[in-house]
Amino acid sequence: MKRLFLLGLLALILASCGSSRKVTDTSVIGSNSSSVSEKKISKIVSHAKTFVGTKYKFGGTTSRGMDCSGLVYVSFQQENILLPRISRDMAKEGVPISLRQAEEGDLLFFQTSKNRKVINHVGLVVDTGGGVLKFIHSTTRRGVIISSLEERYWNEAFVEVRRII
Question: What's the confidence (pLDDT) of residue 27?
Answer without folding.
Answer: 42
